[in-house]
Amino acid sequence: MPGITREEVAHLGRLSRLELKVEELDHFAAQLDEIIGAVARVSEVAGEDVPPTSHPLPLTNVMRPDTVRPSLTPEQALSCAPAQEQQRFKVPQILGED
Amino acid sequence: MTDLTRLTAAETAAKIASGETSAVEVAKAHLDRIAAIDEKVHAFLHVDTEGALAAARAVDGKRAKGEKLGPLAGVPLALKDIFTTEGVPTTVGSKILEGWIPPYDATLTRKLKDAGIVILGKTNMDEFAMGSSTENSAYGPTGNPWDLTRIPGGSGGGSSAALASFQAPLAIGTDTGGSIRQPAAVTGTVGVKPTYGAVSRYGMVAFSSSLDQGGPCARTVLDAALLHEAIAGHDPLDSTSIDAPVPPVVEAARSGDVRGLRVGVVKEFAGEGYQAGVMERFNDSVEMLRELGAEVVEVSCPSFTYALAAYYLIAPSECSSNLARFDGLRYGLRTGDDGTRSAEEVTSLTREAGFGPEVKRRIMLGTYALSSGYYDAYYGSAQKVRTLITRDFERAFGEVDVLVSPTTPTTAFPIGERADDPMAMYLADLCTIPANLAGNAAMSLPCGLAPEDGLPVGLQIIAPALADDRLYRVGAAVEAAFTARWGHPLLEEAPTL
C-alpha cells in the first residue's frame, strides 16, 4: 500500500476545493496515511461473489405528482445569500476572460 | 416545591394537562436552569428564550380553551443544531454556517412544534456530526455533567449533556455511526437510533445520507418512546422515508415484559480495548435479563470486526459529495471575494476557512476512496462488507429477537485526550456502527457506573429494522430492574452543578 505523500494531500485538497495551508499538508498526510492503512482491510474479506450494498432500504426512484406547490419566495431564498443583485445570487467570475 | 427541571417528560406533561403547573412555568424553570449552569456545561449554542416562551404560552392558551393537548404538550426540548429552524440560527457546529438563519423548518422541527413541544434552543455538536466527543465543534467543547473535564460523547454531546444536567427533559440527536447512542452511554441517559428511514431527514443537514438518522434522547425509556412517536412517520419530502406504520413503541415501553424473549450477546464486542468496568456492568445487565425471564445466548457476527473500516470509507465518501454544496455561493460563509478571484478560488478559500480539521480529513478521505484506481479497493470493498454485515444481522435475528452489547468500549475520556488522534477517536463507535450500516434500530440506556472511575456505562440493544418496539420493551424492563436495585434513577448520582 503506497504511503500518502504531502503532494497527494495537495492534490486531494485541490479535488476537494480546499485551499490547504502549507503547514496542514504534512499533518494531514500522516493522519490520512494512518487512517487509509487501517481501513484498507475491507479488501481482505469480501469475495467476488458478494454484491455491494449502497443503501439499507431497497428503494427505487420515488416520484410525486408533478403539481405546483407553494415554495420559498425569492426574498426568503436570497435571505442568507453572501451577495445578491436583481433577485439573483451574485457570484464571483465563473468563466475565464476569453 | 417541586423542582420542575427534575421531572420526567411524562410527569411534566401530566402536570401541565391537569393544571398543576403551566407550560410557561416549566419553560421558565428550564430557561433559568440554562442561565444558571450552561456557562459551565456549554450544551447550547443558541437559546431561543422568546420562541420557547411563545410556544409555552400557546400550549397554556389551548388548555385554557379546553382543547385536547398531545402527550408531550408543553414539555421543553433541546434540539441538535443540525435541524433547520425557521428564523432561528442553525450552524451544524460549523463556522461555514455561522449566522445562517434558515427560511424553513425541518419536518422534524415542524412535528415537534405541532406536538406542542417547547424548543428551548439548539445544542452543540461535532462539526457536521463528525466526531465522538463534541470537541470538533467550531464553537468549543461541551463538558460531561458527570465530570466537566470529560467529553459528553459525540456528535450529539450538547443534547446528552443538556439531559444529564437537567437543562431539558427531552432532546433530539442524529445517529450516523453512533452519535445518539454513544453520548447517551457516557452521560447516563437514553438514546435511540430508530430504523433507517423512520424519522424524516428533510431539513436535517446531510452528512452521510445512507446512514444518517434522527432520533429521540431522554432520561427515561418511556420519555424516549413518547418522543419517538411524535417525530416518526412517513414524509413525502424525504424520498428515503419509510411508508409504514410507526411500531407501537409507547405501548412497548409501558409493558417492559421480556419473559421468553431471546437475547443474543454479540461475541465480537468484547476483548482488547474494552474497559474492565464497562464489561462488568454489561455482564450485570445480561444477568439481569436472564433473571427477568429472557433466554440469553451467545451469537457470532464475524463481519462486525470489519464494520469500523467499512464505515470510515462509506461515510467519508458520502460526505465528500454531500458537503460539496458548501461552496460559498448561495448561503453561509464566503471568503476572499475581492473581485479578482474566480468562483472556484473563492469556493476553495471559503471551504478552507469554514471547515475544521476533522471535516477536511473526511472530505479528503472520501475523495481519495472514490477516485479512479482506488474506487474498487476502497469504496467498492466497503459496500461488500456492508452486505456481509447485513447478512450477519439476518442470521442472528433468525435465532434471537434482539442483540445486546456495550454501547461504547470505554467510559467518557478526558477532553483533549484523543482530539488529534483520529483513529483512537473512531474506536468509540466500534459497537454502534453495524446497526447504521444495516439500517437496524438500536438503543443505549444506562446500566450503572464503572467501578474504576464512577462514570456511566451504556447497554446497547439492537433490533431488526421496523421492530423498534422491541428496544423499548427490553429497555423498560432493564431500566425498571436497575432503578429498583439502585433505589433511584442513575442520574440522581450525578453532580448537581
TrEMBL record, chain A:
Has the keyword Ligase been applied to this entry?
Answer: yes
Q: Does the keyword section mention Phosphoprotein?
A: no
In terms of superkingdom, the source organism counts as Bacteria
InterPro entries linked: Asp/Glu-ADT_sf_sub_c (IPR036113), GatC (IPR003837)
Signal peptide stretch? none
Catalytic activity entry: L-aspartyl-tRNA(Asn) + L-glutamine + ATP + H2O = L-asparaginyl-tRNA(Asn) + L-glutamate + ADP + phosphate + 2 H(+); L-glutamyl-tRNA(Gln) + L-glutamine + ATP + H2O = L-glutaminyl-tRNA(Gln) + L-glutamate + ADP + phosphate + H(+)
What Enzyme Commission number(s) apply to this enzyme?
A: 6.3.5.-
Annotated region (Disordered), positions in chain: 47-70
Task: For this UniProt record, give its keywords in alphabetical order, as a comma-separated list.
Answer: ATP-binding, Ligase, Nucleotide-binding, Protein biosynthesis
Q: What does this protein do?
A: Allows the formation of correctly charged Asn-tRNA(Asn) or Gln-tRNA(Gln) through the transamidation of misacylated Asp-tRNA(Asn) or Glu-tRNA(Gln) in organisms which lack either or both of asparaginyl-tRNA or glutaminyl-tRNA synthetases. The reaction takes place in the presence of glutamine and ATP through an activated phospho-Asp-tRNA(Asn) or phospho-Glu-tRNA(Gln).
Q: Which family does it belong to?
A: Belongs to the GatC family.
Report quaternary structure and partners: Heterotrimer of A, B and C subunits.
Q: What is this protein called?
A: Aspartyl/glutamyl-tRNA(Asn/Gln) amidotransferase subunit C
What is the species of this protein?
A: Streptantibioticus ferralitis
Automatic annotation (TrEMBL), chain B:
UniProt cross-references to HAMAP family, sorted A to Z: GatA (MF_00120)
- EC assignment: the record states 6.3.5.7
Q: Which keywords annotate this record?
A: ATP-binding, Ligase, Nucleotide-binding, Protein biosynthesis
Positions of the catalytic residues: K80 (charge relay system), S155 (charge relay system), S179 (acyl-ester intermediate)
Which purpose does this protein serve, as stated in its record? Allows the formation of correctly charged Gln-tRNA(Gln) through the transamidation of misacylated Glu-tRNA(Gln) in organisms which lack glutaminyl-tRNA synthetase. The reaction takes place in the presence of glutamine and ATP through an activated gamma-phospho-Glu-tRNA(Gln).
Q: Which residues form the Amidase domain?
A: 25-471
Q: Does the keyword Ribosomal protein apply?
A: no
**Which superkingdom?**
Bacteria
The protein's enzyme class:
ligase
State the encoding gene: gatA
Instruction: Report quaternary structure and partners.
Output: Heterotrimer of A, B and C subunits.
Reactions mediated catalytically:
L-glutamyl-tRNA(Gln) + L-glutamine + ATP + H2O = L-glutaminyl-tRNA(Gln) + L-glutamate + ADP + phosphate + H(+)
Q: What is the similarity comment for this entry?
A: Belongs to the amidase family. GatA subfamily.
Q: Could you identify this protein by its name?
A: Glutamyl-tRNA(Gln) amidotransferase subunit A
